[in-house]
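Q: I'm writing up a methods section and want to include an example of the input and output format. Could you take the sequence below and give the corresponding predicted structure tokens, formatted cleanly so I can copy it straight into the document?
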Amino acid sequence: MQVGEVVDEQQLRDAVWARVQMARNVHRPHTLELVRAMATEVIELHGDRLFRDDPAIAGGLCRIDGRRAVFVGHQKGAETNENIHRNFGMPHPEGYRKAIRLYRLAEKLQLPLVTFVDTPGAFPGPASEERGVAEAIARSIEVMTTLRTPIVTVITGEGGSGGALALAVGDVVMALENSIYSVISPEGAASILWRSGEFAQNAAQAMRLTANEQLALGVIDEVVPEPAGGAHEHPDETARRLRARITSQLDALAGRDRRVLLDARYARYRQMGEFTVVSETGEPRAAPERAGLAERIRQLLDSGRAVLSGGDGAPLPPATPDSEDERHERGRAGPGDHGAPGRGRAAHPDRPSHAQPAGRTRGAPGWLAHPPAPADRGGGWRCRDE
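A: Here is the clean output for your methods example:
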């Protein structure tokens, strides 16, 4: 495509959607097929040591061109029964906890980590939520950010949502030519933006989720070309091409100081989403510095203090004591009166009323100025004299 060339919108949508369909092709090689084709001495490890083994995550030890490494990746199936067994590549919490166990094993053995991403997202069912899938994903991301060993990530098919990011916090992120990488599926985005999954093609185009677009955005570092017809047509050739690129990246990362490696990994993800602020004259200017955590907490506390103090910094005035006539008047109120102590029963003249004064305290929220009356438990309040 030439610069300035007019692009037909429908053709562009069709081209992007063709990449989405290619990424989802059930016959594309998955983690175990790729690892067994590109590596030797493959030993698969199972279980998270807490609940069970999740077949949607595969991982273990291998040797890639003589280089020992730990591999972890999403695993889909090539036919219906296997896909059911693998849960269509959607991990449960135990799958991510198995991945975390292998991350830490790689760090302990000082071996590089190679991850393969191919999932529509984490499994969203009730059982997954009950076992803490959100915490498992967050913990996986946290562990990868602080892992003191080189990490190379390859997006081989679908890279969907946090379920993909839990395996994708790498020092180098590569993607196969026909893979996709996005924060949500096109169908999910269409259901939110257009209230209909029929606009999935429009959403796919808008999200810029293809490998080349992600490279242009700086989200990934390299696009690995696929053989003619796609990776599913020539899985062995795809594995050969990936092996060459993975070993090259592992060699580049191997000699780096671990502190420098961690700093570069942090900076990589911290810089994503940066933008330039332009003045009215068109000249770029520095973006406002984001307040640190301590400053944001201080601002939050100050805003709460302003609400409680009436907004001008002055303390709340003390509540005015009720007169005896006011207490008698509220005691005669019916059951619908919010200030009545009970169901129309008069308050004892020598006992203080629990109801708050009718006037709203200056600047205080409604729940603070008028706290709810105690619940009426069957008979209201009774005085001992009754």
